[in-house]
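Letters spell out the chain; backbone shape is given numerically. Both lines appear below:
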Amino acid sequence: MSMTDEPIADPRSTAVEQLTEFGLTEYAARTFVALSALESGTARDVSRVSAVPRTRVYDAIDELRDRGLVDVLQSSPKRFRAISAETTSRTLEHELRHRVDVLRTALSELEPADRGTEQRGVWTVDGQRAVSERTLEFFADVDEEIVYMTVEDLLNDELIDGLSDAAARGVSINRRLESEDAD
């Protein structure tokens, strides 16, 4: 079962797609997926299962080895083995967290020095996720009082936690919930 508790219709294609999203080339992703289905294999085995040309399997293996995703048995012919799904997930998760940290640092160094000053005018933010993120940002920046009005369906656990964090900092909270059918 996947994390969504629904079986994936085509796990091979899904895995290849996700691995390319993490920066692997198509050949490396297909090679890794083939090795994951095999206990271990030679370049010929991988080529047969993945439809990656055998000569390109070696390039793909080098890419995967550089990312720590395969083990190579120095035999004749060489044999390759993918690391476990759990270790792969942890490795890619670590890479992603590192990239997010680097991005956060770079973006924070680009922010104007007066970002904390009040900005006047009407700004629009579209989409539930973006609105929640912006609201949480406001909650985190408030020092004295939050006056917050929303409809019940839009008050999620994340926003409740943000309000609780603000209250724990000594911020006065004035919250009003409306039902969607109240006119």
Observations:
- The longest strand covers residues 145-151.
